[in-house]
Fold this sequence. Notes:
- By secondary structure, the chain is mostly beta strands.
- It is built from 2 helices and 17 strands.
- The strands form 2 sheets. Strands 1-2-3-4-5-6-7-8 form an 8-stranded antiparallel beta barrel.
- Strand 16 (247-254) and strand 17 form a beta hairpin.
- The chain is elongated and about 65 Å long.
Amino acid sequence: MFSMSRSFRHRLSAFVATLLLAAFFIRPAFAANYDYTDNWYVPAESGWGVNFTQTDNFIFATFFIYDAGKNPTWYTAHLTWDGTSQFAGPLYVTHGSAFGTPWIPGELTETQVGTASFTPSTANNYEGTLTYTVTNVAKVVKAVQRLTLTSILLAADYVGGQSGSYSACATASSNAPYQDFFNLAVTQTGMNVSMAFSYRNGALTCTLAGTLVLHGSLQSIDNATYKCSDGLMTNASVYNLKATPLGIEGQFTAPSVGGDCREDARFSGTLK
């Protein structure tokens, strides 16, 4: 049977280890703690799109769209997080030397022709609303999502840290944050993946397993099985799962982990 002692086994007791883990999770405070760098499009309108490159609270957007004569047209936008709900800024058109000739800096022109904004979904990290205006053209509003190119192999061995919390517990004292280190073994067959976490040198082991769903550079497991060596057997949603240049990162939510508790956590690991 699951008992809330699990939460205490999850937590680091050593002060030095806590400081190390806190340093491990330091990251820039960009919008909603999400990175929207990806290719974005409308599935029913494949053939045009917008690319986002994000640094902190700024997105550089490049549009590949078509003008009234159906000619390829390239716009760029400089979008800054407004601190509330969207990235917004000016939209530019640029002209320069022909691609088959030497580049002449003096031929470059950049003219603002409108404005653009991107409002991320409040439900997930892979959908949103793109709005832009161009001189003498009515406002364009599109419900966009990340463009999936290929599946991303996650199978490997990692070492890292996890930061989470228990909430809505029947016993108020069980509502608490936790932090822990882990060794993580990820195995993958096609789109089926299993993530086996070994916490604190094997004192607690947990496995999240299920079928991957692709969302551009992100992946999710919408109905993962969540089992732990202390007897926990439940379901969880794994989301914002991503291969990074150094390893892996993601988040998960388990609505019921015993004692009426909910568990929310984020994790990040580097390749061994």
